[in-house]
Amino acid sequence: MSKIQIVYHFGEESVCMTEEITSFEQLSLREETRKALKKMGFAAPTPVQAQTIPVMMDGYDVIAKAPTGTGKTCAFGIPLMETIRPDCADIQAVIVCPTRELCIQIADELRQLMAFRPDLRLACLYGGQPIAKQLTVLKKNPHIVVATPGRLLDHMGRGTAWLGNVYTAVLDEADEMLKMGFIKDVRRILNATPGDTQVVMFSATISREVMDVAWEYQHDAVEITVQAQGESRPLIAQFEMLSSGDRRTQDMLAIIDELDLHRVMVFCNRKNTVRRLSDRLHKQGRSVDCLHGDIPQSQRNRVMSGYREGAFEILVATDVAARGIDVDDVEAVFNYDIPDENEYYLHRIGRTGRARRKGMAFTFITPDDRFRMRDIKKYTHSEMEAVAFNDAGHLVTENGLPLTEALELQIEE
Question: How much is the mean pLDDT over the chain?
Answer without folding.
Answer: 85
